[in-house]
UniProtKB/TrEMBL annotation:
Gene3D superfamilies: 3.30.420.40, Carbamoyltransferase, C-terminal domain (3.90.870.20). This is Carbamoyltransferase. GO terms for molecular function: transferase activity. It comes from Thiohalocapsa marina. Keywords: Transferase. InterPro entries: ATPase_NBD, Carbam_trans_C, Carbam_trans_C_sf, Carbtransf_dom, NodU/CmcH_Carbamoyltrnsfr. It holds the Pfam family Carbam_trans_C.
Length: 614
């Protein structure tokens, strides 16, 4: 009899659900893709329903339900922190307590209530409800799906219950905790403090800060290390909390932080100045140094060849790239849903391997299936939707479709690409992507300003045929989850004139850096996704068709969404996004839609009614 385990993460940010059957990942999805609320923190009812449907189950069929956090320990940390900082922090205390006393402190009852309503069951008929610790779920999400039998696991995020950084040893079906750095000393919260100070939104703007860093100089690096962070040779650290406000206030930084860096935080949506670029470069340099030192310490202490990473800091692909190239490990494996969403996956796997003590099988392979773990839609369902809404389209077989798309992309057309299962995690990996020609000097600005409606400095990532990655980048081996940054190969770079080398800040964006300028950042780096025939054969086939036509085996790959919205989850979401942007074509499995053929988009008031989800 199969054992079915449902993992849940919720109530903080990036709620998600995951279904594991006999240790195999059946399905995983984030709630935001269904609710259309970015970083949705609510109970993931839609994501749970999706996982159960993919698994052919009802809620009553589950053997265990597990939550990725221990709320009572987190509440203990909250109270101890407020007591330690009293009488400061009263306003923050009064803001937090009603939520905890009403909901989070009684999370077990709340979860049972939500699950009972979802499954139309009595509470006493629900499957057993378990809880893992936050970093235990992160560590399980990193190690158990990895291809390693024995590895160190490094988890770094804002904070779980108490831990902000934790080190584990993974062996077979066991995870042994080694040591941790406790709150309030947090590399994730240090990075988020600079995210806040530079005018971006915490828990979502960290990507922007990382993308902004190459435009600046790390002139504040020493100030960070001299005042904010006491960093030891082994990578452990303590933070001077006089400069921060997140432990006892409603903001991330204090007035002392303002004085240290020459003024108040940048106002959101105001112009980005050289100060913000230099701050980004500085905290990025410090983050990379901390990660490298921690990696070397972990390898030395545990005597391991392999490292697994999870937690929000593991999404810092620039630091990961340096750890890959300069660190002491033979190989890295990074959980693609490294943030809180991946906690649902880790919690479910932890129950199977640690609570039920079941062995790992196939531990020499990546068990994430390319992160293509969400819902998929058939051609029949897509065609029924298009017909019902009188949307013009044409059906092409795979040969015709790939040939047509290769030509459209080579002509600098921007294509929305919707096929196969939806990706799990924050990256679009060729299931819900917007694609463009990386050779086009204008593609970055077109996609940022006319498609994504976001800041012009944001870089785009290349999706490249795995077998040709080393021909274009200084990298060998897989990078399937877009979580490693590598330099563009020297032979592909374009020489710069003396005048171009004198440019500073955002003016650097105007200079093409390589044969593929749309995916080459100003420091000659690129965030790699290697595309493998085994995990995404149709995307691999499209890249191959483009390479046959152009000699270039890569495409610009960015997530299928506009600024402020989650990645599209359904054909309806995809068509809505297509019509609201200046995309030229949309592919829904084998259905090709051209913008020139479409009727005018309805007014926003009519949109929800006209394209209501099935």
């Amino acid at each position: 009899m199969a054992v079915n385990i449902l993992g849940i993460s919720a109530y903080y940010h990036d709620s998600a659900a995951c279904l594991v059957r006999d240790g195999e990942i059946v399905a995983a999805a984030q709630q935001e893709r269904f609710s259309r609320k970015k970083h949705d923190a609510g109970f993931p009812a839609d994501a749970i329903a999706c996982c159960l449907e993919q698994g052919g189950l009802r809620l009553a069929d589950l053997d265990h339900v597990v939550f990725y956090d221990k709320p009572l320990i987190k509440f203990e940390r909250l109270l101890e922190t407020y007591l330690a900082y009293a009488p400061r922090g009263l306003r923050s205390f009064l803001t937090a307590m009603p939520i905890w006393l009403k909901e989070k402190l009684f999370l077990k009852d709340l979860l049972k209530q939500e699950l009972a309503a979802l499954g139309d069951l009595r509470k006493d008929a629900l499957p057993p409800l378990l809880f893992t610790q936050h970093h235990q779920a992160h560590a399980a999400s990193a190690f158990f799906p990895s291809p390693f039998e024995r590895a160190a696991v490094l988890c770094m995020d804002g904070v779980g219950e108490w831990a902000t950084t934790s080190v584990w040893l993974g062996e077979g079906n066991r995870l042994t905790p080694c040591w941790e750095i406790p709150f309030p000393h947090s590399l994730g919260l240090l990075y988020s403090a600079f995210t806040y100070f530079t005018g971006f939104k915490v828990n979502s703007g960290e990507y922007k800060l990382m993308g902004l860093a190459p435009y600046g100089e790390p002139r504040f690096r020493d100030q960070i290390l001299d005042h904010l962070l006491a960093l030891k040779d082994d990578g452990t650290f303590r933070m001077d909390m006089r400069y921060f406000n997140y432990a006892n206030g409603l903001t991330m930084t204090s007035k002392a932080f303002d004085r240290l860096f020459g003024g108040p935080p940048r106002q959101p949506e105001s112009p980005v100045t050289q100060r913000e670029m230099d701050l980004a470069a500085s905290v990025q340099a410090v983050t990379e140094e901390v990660v490298l030192r921690l990696g070397r310490t972990v390898q030395r202490e545990l005597d391991v060849d392999h490292l697994c990473l999870a937690g929000g800091v593991a999404l810092n692909c620039v630091a990961n790239g340096r750890l890959w190239r300069e660190g002491p490990f033979k190989d890295l494996w990074i959980q693609p849903a490294a943030g809180d969403a991946g906690g649902a996956l880790g919690a479910a796997l932890s129950v199977w391997h640690e609570y039920l003590q079941q062995p790992r099988t196939g531990s020499d392979t990546d068990r994430m299936r390319g992160a293509y773990l969400g819902p998929a839609f058939s051609n029949a369902a897509i065609e029924a939707y298009l017909q019902a809404n009188d949307i013009p389209w044409q059906r092409l077989d795979d040969d015709q479709l790939m040939d047509r798309l290769a030509q459209l992309l080579a002509d600098e057309q921007v294509v929305g690409w919707f096929q196969g299962p939806m990706e799990f995690g924050p990256r679009a990996l060729g299931g819900r992507s917007i694609l463009g020609d990386p050779r086009s000097p204008r593609m970055q600005s077109v996609m940022n300003l006319k498609i994504k409606y976001r800041e012009s400095f944001r870089p785009f990532a290349p999706a490249v045929l795995a077998e040709q990655v080393s021909d274009w980048f200084e990298h060998t081996g897989p990078s399937p989850y877009m979580l490693l940054v590598a330099p563009v190969a020297e032979a592909r770079r374009l020489p710069m004139t003396d005048a171009q080398q004198q440019l500073f800040g955002i003016d650097r964006l105007k200079v093409p850096r390589s044969e593929v300028p749309a995916v080459t950042h100003v420091d000659y780096s690129a965030r790699l996704q290697t595309v493998h025939r085994e995990t995404n054969p149709r995307f691999h086939r499209l890249l191959s068709a483009f390479a046959a036509r152009t000699g270039c085996p890569l495409l610009v790959n960015t997530s299928f969404n506009v600024r402020g919205e989650p990645i599209v989850g359904s054909p309806q979401d995809a068509y809505r996004c297509f019509m609201r942007t200046e995309m030229d074509a949309l592919v829904l499995e084998n259905c090709l839609l051209l913008k020139a053929d479409q009727p005018p988009a309805p007014a926003d008031d009519d949109w929800q009614r006209t394209f209501e989800l099935d």
